[in-house]
Amino acid sequence: MSGKGNIKNYADFKEAMLASAKRKSVATNSVKTINPLIGEYWFGLDLGSQKIRGVCGRMMADEKLEVTTFSETPAAGIDRGWIIEPDAAANCIKTVVNDLMMMSGAAVEQLTVMLPASQLKRFTYRSVIEREHELTPVTPAEIGLLYAQIQDLEMPAGERVIHFYPEDFFMDDVKLNAGPAGITGKWLEAEFHVWAAQYTVVQNIINCVEKAGFSVETFIPAYIAAAQSVLTDDEKKSGVALMEIGVFSTQIAIYFNGKLQDAASIPFGGASITGDIMNGCVLSAKEAERVKIKSGCAIAGKVKENEIVTIPDAKGFSKEISVSILAQIIQARVEEILEMAKAEIKKAGFEGRLMNGIVVTGGTAELKLLNELIETHTGLKARTGYPVEKLTGSAPMEIRNPVYANCIGQAISAYEKKKQEYFLTGKLNLNSASFPSEVKEKEIK
After folding, report:
1. Which residues partner with 359 through β-bridges?
2. Sign of the alpha-carbon torsion through 373, 79, 93, 209
3. Contact between 119 and 198 (Cβ < 8 Å)
């Protein structure tokens, strides 16, 4: 889905302004050099189906997050991004956030919350304004009008915009190398990445967070958050696919030329592997998860055929499982996920173009020999995505783990979003939530 405003007389001056706009696009931008967000505390909240995790960190002068504290608790009342028991979920959120405040000494009223890709619809939209004074430089207020068009975007019944950011700016149909501040011209445009979700899903999360005593500052798509914490800028420029293996689904996000190019959700994740082990080895869910973590391997040919793992139960009995059979079960499901990931990469037009291959993160990312299987099955190089790219060296070892990629990415994404809005529009409000308790009527028409 994309859009462009109704522009009168656009073609009349387009060619006449083209050469001028090209010259102006290299003009010096009047960019603010003082960043008031440095030193502020940023919170991230990951509402997972198995665990609810939170981090609190302070953004340092080198734009690395100094994590001051983190917390997690078993999840309750949440299933695949849906709030199914509001009171239980609210209690979990309250527990985690109160821990963060108590241990960090920082107060929090508003939270950045993750939404899984399976709950989202992504599209691009081009906002445009006709400038009244085309010979004067673009002002922050005019850039703010482009943002306002996205905030006021009319959506299909039952949907609302939950996240957006500008990818490129244009003046008189010429792409600008940087932001538009200081540029002159007639028609100012911005191409936004926009994410929308079902109103009921969003409102249930907002209600749940408020029941816990807080409010939602902004929502961030899960793969955007993970990419912030595990991918390097060079990887994004030369081509990489992020594969975030969650509990119930796997998210694929493709970056090329420094930009998000495509994203998809695969309906299998770590729980699918655990379920296969339950059925194949006749184990309970807890036993299957435990043996997957302790003795699981992604390549059956790399384990000893006669190796056995013993699983004791609560009644004092034990069960012996062949590690080779366990690996066969795991490999079959992982290869199915990889085959679907390959199809998504090909569908997006990036087969053979991703120089940096696949970066895998999420709870299943540390499965033994997973990267080797990815490389063998896809022909792409692979590495595990640890969320350390934008952390200070003092970050606790416990959070340098793929399971914290989304959570850390939430905090970093909240900072980046606020910084971008400030430097483009000149507006900074650290105290107002983006999502009111009740959605305006026009948002749910």
Report:
1. 242, 383
2. positive
3. yes
Q: Which residues pair with 56 in a beta bridge?
A: 43, 69
DSSP output for 17-52: HHHHHHHHTTSPP------TTTT-EEEEEEE-SSEE
Integer angstrom CA distances of residue 437 from 204, 210, 216, 218:
10, 8, 9, 13
Q: Is the pLDDT of residue 272 over 90?
A: yes
* Cβ-based neighbours of 398, under 8 Å, separated by 6 or more: 70
Contacts of 213 (CB under 8 A, 6+ apart): 94
Task: Give per-residue pLDDT as tens, 384-443.
Answer: 999 998 999 888 899 999 999 999 999 999 898 888 887 777 665 544 334 444 433 333
Contact 39, 163 (CB under 8 A): no
How many contiguous H segments (helices) and E segments (strands) does the chain have? 11, 18
- The CB density around residue 25, as the number of other CB atoms within 10 Å, is 19
Could you give the 3-state DSSP secondary structure of residue 138? coil
**For the residues of 194-214, what is the DSSP string, one character each?**
EEEEEHHHHHHHHHHHHHTT-
Distance separating alpha carbons of residues 384 and 28, to the nearest angstrom = 40
Pairing mode, strands 51-59 and 65-74: antiparallel
**Enclosing H/E stretch for 374:** helix 370-378
- In the sheet where 215-221 sits, what is the strand order? 65-74, 51-59, 41-47, 110-115, 215-221
Mean pLDDT of the chain: 86
Whether 143 has a pLDDT exceeding 80, the answer reads: yes
The DSSP annotation for 79-101 comes to ETTEES-HHHHHHHHHHHHHHHH
Enter the pTM of the model.
0.84
**417: which 2 tokens?**
């979003």
Rounded Cα distance between 193 and 107, Å, is: 31
